[in-house]
What we know:
The chain is mainly α. It has helices at residues 2-8, 20-40, 55-76, 79-94, 111-118, 133-143, 169-174, 218-224, 238-247, 250-260, 263-279, 282-307, 318-325; strands spanning 146-153, 163-167, 193-203, 206-216, 231-233.
Amino acid sequence: MDNLVKVHGSGGYDSDFSDDDEQGESSERGLKRKREEEILQKPFQKGRHSKVAHRSLHSNELDREEARNRRAHLISMNAFERHKKFVGDYILYYGGQMADFKRSAAKDKTDLDVLRENHRFLWRDEDEDDMTWEKELAKKYYDKLFKEYCIADLSRYKENKFGFRWRTENEVVSGKGQFQCGNKHCEKEEGLKSWEVNFAYVEHGEKRNALVKLRLCPECSFKLNYHHKRKEVKAKTKTKRLSEENREPPQKKRNKKRKRSSSHSKKHKHKRHRYRSASSSSSEESQDKDSEAGDEAEGQSEADHWRGPAPAVEEKSREEEFDEYFEDMFL
């Protein structure tokens, strides 16, 4: 056996066809390949990992990816949802109950509660001192109300107690309180009467008075005047005014026209009248007075044309025209 080992080399696995030249060629090829890779490698290019990555590197990459996903999830939520998530995580990890995190809603106030606390029927200059945001909110709401007519609550009329408030924009558009009965629970449109009421009320511990106007139907007017009669407001129509002017005698109309004339025309007219009365007889005076008055008026009108430019006629503004139009509507 020893001879066999010596003959065949190490354990008889050697081959007679193997040469050392092949080993030299393979080593040269490997060196050439390494040189080519070094030449082709760029300066910013990282080297190839010849080994398997460590477990810590893998865990770090997973943590980074999880942090990115969690951050994107938190950014997509609003503040309240984010708060709820943090509270839920806190209870999940540290224990507790959701009731411990609920705040008390006993002191919460809505805008309506703030208006009820700070509202005033009439704002004065003294009320605008030391304005807070609650008072400014109430004052802003007060400025939006329409204060021509009131809306009344007559449910306690037998106790002589009434409630009044100003109208809102929707009520003005619908005609409630002016073309409809001003009672809160009535919508009649026929036989409306206007009443003027001295409204006495207590506001923030202070007694105040306000003169308000109402438009009520006959039934609601009876409720308003159940204890004592209120003042009824009546407006003169244009037809009545014209009829009163037509009833006046013509002498008063002439006197009004003469008063409007200038003082210089009056003096001139008085001199001419005296000169003619001295030369004429007593019988002619009674006949010529009316004719002289007409002639003098025509002479004045002709003379006034040559004394100066015609008086400028004042044109009414748009607001004045609207005031005349709504004069009968707003009593």
